[in-house]
Description:
Structural class: mainly alpha
Distance between the termini: 36 Å
Radius of gyration: 22 Å
Amino acid sequence: GTASQEREQDDGRGKAQGLGGGTRIVRMDFGNLEGSPHRSSPHRWVLELLAKAVQGAPSLPEPGPWLPTLEWLAKLEPLLEERNQRCLVAIDEVENLQDGIARGWSDPGFLRFVRAAGDKLRRIRFLLVSAHPLERLGHDWTDRLISAVPYTLTYLEEDAARELVTRPCDEFPDIYPEGGVQRILAETRCQPHFTQAVCDALVRRLNADKRITSTNVDIERAIDSAYNAQSHVLQELWQMQTADEQAWLRRLASNKEKVTEPDSALVSLERYGYVELRGEYGVAMPLFARWIRQYQRLA
């Protein structure tokens, strides 16, 4: 969310104040799902983490299909209601499950489990976090998660991005030269991950030099540092695109032609925020355009 929205605050015991009193967050990361003993049965992983998170949870069923897990969660709900508690199961990099489905070490059963849990449960909810839009993950996902509510995290409004840069915490000093904040926002297009990466590089540099104010040279070096450190993220963004979309990104990053008439691939890039129409089409985030020019052969 943006800096103007209510921030989630963790009290160190997995309770988030921004989600309402009594909400306990159970965090999971599918980034290394392939190496997990639960890779073929992620529902069992959910069950074991919730059993640890909720004191007095019922005895666990024997390992097996996901239906007994759902029945166990249904038994957990009255206990949560009695305590006026809720649980949010937040799963990062959930797209790695699709890799398992494609390669045969997992199957769509977990998606059926999540949908059934959404229909049956009221005090336990799932938050699936992915760098990919749901439809890009394939029909297994769109067919089984038909009742899922999608939220897209995209570029911040400029005022919110400026607040993130200048007031990441109370009493943060004015460390920027004239025009420095605007330079950061322009290069990152107010994308929160890359904006914070540039600011992190800048603060680290100032701390190393025992300084409290930066120069324009510091800003440029922080942008370069963040660009190099986040090159793998830009590579992932590139790999997420289809061949036709990559061809468009090459053309637009080259700045050699004006494009005003889109085809379906360009419309898709615009819908997901990779390109923007400002008089003519261009790559939305200059840091991404820079990476394309450096690492991809331009058409």
